[in-house]
Structures are given as structure tokens and as C-alpha cells.
Amino acid sequence: MSISDPANLFQRVPELRTFSDDPKISRAIESGDPFKVYRSLVLARLFRRLPQHKDVLKELTSERRLFAKPLKGTPSLGTINSVGFSFVGESERDTDGSHIALHAFVILFALPLVPMGSYVVRSTGDRQWQIYARAPLGIMGWLYTRSLALTLVIMVLTGATASYHEASNQDLIILNGFEIPVNVKIGEQTRIVPALGRATLTLPVGHLRGEASAGKTGVIDTYDQTLESSDRYSIWNIAGAAPLVENTIIYSKVKPSDPGQAGSQIVYCGKRLMEFANIKYLFSEPPQTMSMSKHESSVSVKQLTIINQPGTPGVMSCLNYAFEHGQEKDMLGALEAYAAIKDWESRTAEITLYIARNASNAEALRISRKVLKMHPDDVMLERSVQDLRDDIGEHELMLKEYAQRASQRAESSSEQYLYASLLSGSEGLQTMKALRQKFPQDANILRSLAWRKFVHGDSRGAAQDLQQLSTLSPENASYLFDTQIKLLLTQQRAADALKILDAAMNNSKGLERAVHALEFNEIARQVNNGDPEKYLRSMPEDEDGKLLDIYRAKAGLPTTNAANRDLPIVKLSQSLRSSPEQTLDLMKQINAIQIRKYLGADQLALLYGEASRINNKVAKDKLQQMMHMRKADLAVFEQFVRGDNVSLDEVDFETEVLAAAYFIRSRNSQLPAQERQTLRQLAAKTDMLQGVVSTAIKQWQS
User: Fold this and answer.
1) Are 699 and 644 in contact (CB under 8 A)?
2) How far apart are CA 400 and CA 406, in angstroms?
3) Each residue's pLDDT tens digit, 339-396
4) Residues 6+ apart with CB under 8 A from 657
5) Which of helix, strand or coil describes residue 102?
């Protein structure tokens, strides 16, 4: 068989004619490339394809010079710091000193990393060479270069695949601030996020929809978001319930004198969808110290973490934080989900309603309807909803609605009570008296009757009803704790009132404890008996002393912490005792949440009364929702303090509110002097605890 030989290999290597009949070797010969011919011989030998010619194959593949090519250029040589290109190794040495060496990228002058080719060379000195021709790579060198090329291809493909995957997908971190597991579904992916835990879903970028559901409660939050690929952390905090915190920690070579210079903190309670960049410690603790270069004086890093309080669901930790910082509205979604998980039990439902009222009337109505649907027979809850509807102007509508319900269910004490609760003044009092005769065992009716008798001056009747209520339903009687204290004062039994307060202090905490401590101080100061500041010296639950000092200021006492003197709420309480003008001006610095949380009914009544008297619309608008009065009663209050000819017999005012109304009306210079004096006397008498109203009577300028 005749084959072409463009490289004249048959003249150089006659033994090749032995393989003329082999298709693979003959094609290599016809290519004119000696290196291809050599590789075809190597492969035939490796795979034992021509066993009858194994000796010839062994001889030819051991003589690479036979398949050498002329030089096309001088290969790169030279190293820097022992790294570069050089000839290494030696094989097939000839008598003149020439041999085949490997041209490679080397380190330490002699360790080859990447083979570049083989050459016929002769050394002419230290790393000096005479180069004659190119030779094919040896078997190991050829396999190594092919393996290296394959590895690089795989790396490129892997990197491209990873880059494509990274560009088309994004991790979404999902947080669960509830004390039960939550099932999350986004697209086709599902994951159970453990109670008070977190999970990560790798999702395709683009617009995604999903939902989070909690057992029998059903859906508690939804996800409807365009997810983009980025190096930022994407987070879905279900319903905004988990207390997510971003800390900035500053490491300094010199300890800062101001603790605030050591870092800062941002709390994301109530926030559902967020992205964060440059987070170094994701849900892990940063080190106590950080190494710095000699040119750095400080280094800052960011940490993202969850604040967990033992025994407290994340949603409640967030709610506590929100109340402290006036951010309750942000927690409505989380609290609504939490209330649903709790089957809308009364306490959680009431808190949710309270926050909904701060958000908007529409939200409050929506939540209230949901609550009543879940608990149609919860009378106390329905009373809260009645107050809400009254605030938004539905009093007349409710009167018709509940009157119809009462007429349709004449034998239902609850329906009769709910209707009578909407009636004020003497009409409401007489209706409750009649219901008491018809339903003597209904605790709601008896509780309402006792309170109404007291605020309308029948202390003896109120005391008798309260005693019966304590036997019938101690729980209902506990709602009239403050009324019981005032009744004892009207009976000249201050010592008994102090005993009751002493006992109550053991079972109270937080704001309730602070209120009781203030009442104890006011009564003990009146009778000059015991230690009035007994409970206003410390408050175990008040770590930073702010709550204690807020209530000390309300009592007219100096703060325990000098730094708290400048708290706006403290300054307001202090100025309210002597300067109404300054107090109304200070209100601009205080948010409505703090006013509602810390000011008592007597303080609110003084502020709102004075704002109404001088027609300070800004202050009135801020205080109006906090007065806890029916709109009609509030209108009467405003008319009365302005000096209009109106009667208070048809309204139901707490005694401290009534005392404030008497005093503010007495400041109207257009009224006769005798009437103003009588009003002051009534105010002092009605202010049974002799609190801020009594102080204002003495210190406010007429």
C-alpha cells in the first residue's frame, strides 16, 4: 500500500514502513507532523494494539530524536527569584553532550510546574544552552500536559457553571420569631423553619410569591417580591416577628472613654423584607479583639444576629422593644400573626387591638371584627371594641345596634350589660341598677354598677357593691382596685389602703408596680405614717432607673440618676406641677406613645383641660385619643373647662379627671370669684390622692 510521506520520515526512520498498513499510524505519517507520528506510536504501544511489533514500537518510542522538528524560534528562558522558564531533566544523551531536556515553567530553578515542550539541547555553562531542535514530549510529559489542559477546561466550565448559577439564583434567609415551627413555601420549594430559628432557601432570581403558615392557624405572612442576584444578604423576617439586630463593633487600639464609640446597634423589629451588605459575622459571634496594622487606630466590623431572651418568644421581645421606643405600629403584623397562633386569647387580642388603634381606625375595625368572630361570647373583649367604635364616631350606630340585640335577647344578662354600658350619667346608672335587680349574679353588671355609683358620689353604695363583687367574682373585683383604694380614703381608712397597696406590690411589676408605688407615696404622705418613698427608692425590674425616676418626678421627688433629669417626660411631670405653659411646650418633644404610657389620668386631664381652655389645637390633637372618654363626654369636658354652662351629671368621669375639670374651669377669669373659689375647693376635695391636681391648685398662677 502506497502512502504519502511529506516529512520524509521513511528516509529518517525506515522502520516506519512496518506500520504502513495501520490506519492510525499511516494517517499520522501522511499529516507530515513527526510529533503526531511519535504520539501514534506511543498510543499503539500503550494500548498494545500491535503486539506483533512490540519490540519495534519500544525501540522507536525510546528514540525521540528520530521525530525531532526544526526550531521555529527560541524558547523563553530566565528566572526571577528562582521562578521562571528553564530546561530541566536529561534523557537520550549523545556522545557530544547533547540530550533531550524539558522546557518548563519552574520554581526553585529546577522544579517543573507546567511543561512547555521538549528540546534537543547542549549545556554551554551555568543555565546556558545550545538549542538544536524540538523533540516530542515523553509519555509522562505528554499525559501530564493533557491532564493539565483537561483540568483547566473543567475549572473554566465549573467556574462558568458556578457563575451562571450564582447569577441566576439568590439565597433567601428566613427568620421565625414565633415559638412554633412555621412552614414556608416559595414557588416549588418548601421548608420548615424551626421555632425561634432560621432557614435558607436558594431561589431563582425574579418575581417570587410564597407564604408562611403555622399549623392550624394557616397563613400568617406572604412573600411577594422580586429577588435579585447580589452579594447582599436577602432576609425575610416572617411577619417582622424576630428581633433582628445589626451591630457595628469598633475595635480600637486605645480604649475609648465614651462607651458609645465602641459601636452601635440597629434593631429591625417589625421589618419583614431586608437586604444587608458588608456583614462580616452572620449569626456568629465576633472575636473579643481584632488585629490591626501599624497604620490603623481602629477597625469596625458588622454583625447580624438575633436577640434571644430565654423563655420569651422573639415576637414578644420585639414588642417590648417597640413599646420602649414608640414603634408599636411596626409590630401590628407580627402581633396579629401571634394572636392568631394563640387563638386570639383575650390578653393578646387586647394588645393587638390597642396597637391597631394607634395605626388607624380602619386597621382597628378590621382587627376587632376578626377578634369578635373568634370570641363572640367574650364580653370584656366586646367592651374594648365598643370603646374603639365610640372613638371613631359610631356611638349612635352602636346604641341602635345593641338596643336591638338587647330587645331580642331579653334574658341574656350579657346583651343587657353591653347595651347599658353605652349609656352615660344618671341614665346609665339607673339602667345598671335595674339590671342588678334582674341579674343579681352577673359580675359584669355588679362591677359596672359599683364604679358608676362611686363616680357619681354614692361611696357607701359603691362600697357595698364592691364587697359583694369580691365574694361573687374576685377577678372582676380586681378591675376596681383603684376604686377600692379611693373608697377607703373616703371612709378615712388610709391605713387600710396602705396595707392593700403593700400586698399588691408583691404581685405587681413594671408599670403596674410603678403606679402602686406612686399611690403608696401619695397616701403615706397624707397621713404622715411610715415611709412614703418606700417603693420609690428602687424598682427591681427597672435596670437603667428611668422608670423609677419617671414616677419619682410624677410624685414631685428628685430623680435618683442625675442623667434622667433631662428626660423630656421627667421635665414634663416636673413642670406640670408649676407651669402649664412650659408643660404644653414640652409636649412637642414627647411622642404620643410616651405620653400614653407614662402620664396618669390626672396629668392627662390637666394637660387636655388647659389646652382646651386656651384653645391650643396642637396639644389637643395630640392628647385627644389618650383621654379614654366617649366623644360626647369629651365634648362636655371641653365645654365645662372653658366655662360654658353645662352639667356634669350626665357624664361618667373618674374622680381625678373630675378634679382636673373643676380646677381648670376655676382658671377662667370671666367667672365670678366665689364660683372660682368653690371650684378650687371641689377640685381639692375630689383629688383624693392629693396628687398633681392638688399641687397645681397651689402652684399654678391664676
Assistant:
1) no
2) 10
3) 999 988 878 888 888 888 777 878 888 888 888 888 888 898 888 888 888 877 889 9
4) 601, 602, 605, 629, 637
5) strand
Residues 327/298, Cβ–Cβ less than 8 Å? no
Q: Nearest CA to 653 among 677, 635, 676?
A: 635
pLDDT at 62 over 90: no
- How many other β-carbons are positioned within 10 Å of the β-carbon of residue 457? 12
DSSP 18: G
The two beta strands, 281-282 and 298-306, are parallel
Q: Is the distance from CB of 16 to CB of 4 less than 8 angstroms?
A: no
DSSP string, 381-413: HHHHHHHHHHHTT-HHHHHHHHHHHHHHTTT-H
**Length of the chain measured in residues:** 702
Q: What count of other Cβ atoms lies within 10 Å of the Cβ of residue 236?
A: 23
Confidence of residue 414 (pLDDT cuts 50, 70, 90): very high
Residue indicated by cell numbers 419617671: 550
Cell numbers linked to 242? 424576630
Encode burial over 80-90: b for 16+ CB neighbours within 10 A, e otherwise.
Answer: eeeeeebbebe
Q: Residue 361 is placed in which grid cell?
A: 381606625
d(CA 393, CA 535): 41
Pairwise CA distance, residues 410 & 375, whole Å: 21
Alpha carbons 471 and 479: distance in angstroms, whole number: 14
In the numeric block, the cell 501522511 is attached to 30
377 Cβ neighbours under 8 A, 6+ residues apart? 414
- Strand pairing class (169-175; 233-237): parallel
Give me 513's grid cell.
408596680
Confidence of residue 154 (pLDDT cuts 50, 70, 90): low
The torsion angles phi and psi of 90, rounded to 5 degrees, stand at: -155, 130
Cα–Cα distance, 104 to 138 (Å, whole number): 13
How far the first Cα of the chain sits from its last, in Å, is: 132
pLDDT more than 70, % of the chain:
93
For 359, residues 6+ apart whose C-beta sits below 8 A from its C-beta are 329, 332
Residue 132 near residue 122, CB atoms below 8 Å:
yes
As a whole number of angstroms, the distance between CA 461 and CA 368 comes to: 35
How far apart CA 294 and CA 133 sit, in angstroms, is: 55
Task: Using alpha carbons, select from 45, 73, 314 the residue that is nearest to residue 198.
Answer: 314
Between the CA atoms of 90, 92, 98 and 102, what dihedral angle is there, to the nearest 10 degrees?
A: -40
The cell for 448 is 359596672
Model confidence at 160, pLDDT cuts 50, 70, 90, reads low
State the helix-helix crossing angle for 34-46 and 139-168, rounded to 10 degrees: 90
**What is the distance of C-alpha 332 from the center of its chain?**
13
Q: How far is 19 from 37, CA to CA, in rounded Å?
A: 11
DSSP codes of every residue in 142-185: HHHHHHHHHHHHHHHHHHHHHHHHHHHEEEEEEE--SSS-EEEE
Query: In sequence order, what are the residues at sequence separation of 6 or more whose Cβ sits closer than 8 angstroms to the Cβ of residue 19?
Result: 25, 26, 41, 44, 50, 53
Question: DSSP secondary-structure letter at 654?
Answer: -
C-alpha cell at 588: 412637642
Are 692 and 570 in contact by the 8 Å Cβ rule? The answer is no
Mean confidence (pLDDT) of the chain: 86
DSSP structure class, residue 364: H
CB 417 within 8 A of CB 379: yes
Cβ distance 311 to 220 under 8 Å? no
Q: Report in angstroms the alpha-carbon separations of 541 from 34, 535, 538.
A: 92, 12, 9
